[in-house]
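Final report, closing paragraph on structural work. Over the funding period we assembled a curated collection of sequence-structure pairs, and we close with a single example.
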Amino acid sequence: MRRSRFAAYVTSLLLAVGAALAGATPAQAATGPYVALGDSYSSGVGAGSYISSSGDCKRSTKAHPYLWAAANSPSSFAFTACSGARTGDVLANQLAPLNSATALVSLSIGGNDAGFSDVMTTCVLQSDSSCLSRINTAKAYVDSTLPGQLDSVYSAISTRAPNAHVVVLGYPRFYKLGTTCVGLSETKRKAINDAADYLDAAIAKRAANHGFTWGDVRSTFTGHELCSGSSWLHSLNWLNIGESYHPTAAGQSGGYLPVLNSAA
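Its predicted structure, as stored:
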């Protein structure tokens, strides 16, 4: 008799647990409002399929924010990332959609402030020593000035969207090392990769200090750098300079989107 009551108790307990688990895992609920901020790596420069109304901001339907929104159906999606944006541009032009209802914010910013475009131009066109010198100048800026600029952006996001989960996405390493690569010496390629690491480390630290989630894309891009034979980045293109050194559509869907999926 005692065994029978115990068996009945276990059965009822299992049924209760099963019911609770069923209640805890319903069909995916609608996602709250999502706002995508940032620079060309968020707008999707290099991925093609640009939204005509976005003009020079070159927002792409193949950019990771657009792909995430298409897959997750947030209750609203505001895509304000813009090609060429610096921290000041985010503050001045991109924050309007944020409010207390915003559930998710994604952002990539800091590369243009640190002079990424000029670094690449110098390294491509000038000597190893000139390349290293320009990178050192960029690193000094990352040390002295960029943290305060990032703090201003991150604080503004927290103020406007206090309930949002914020994902700060970084930048990939650009070159595969130890292989033949036309145009740039191994010295330059290593220095550029080190500079990307330096920038990512600075951004990650500021993001952590604000309680934001860091999205590191270096691992997903590994094996798909320039000179890898399977690159997810555009090399220098004199016919379309703006797309040079930006992710391809595959870089957005294979490099950035999985990181956003994991972090969001």
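Confidence is low (pLDDT under 50) at residues 6-29. The first helix runs from residue 2 to 24. We thank the funder for supporting this effort.
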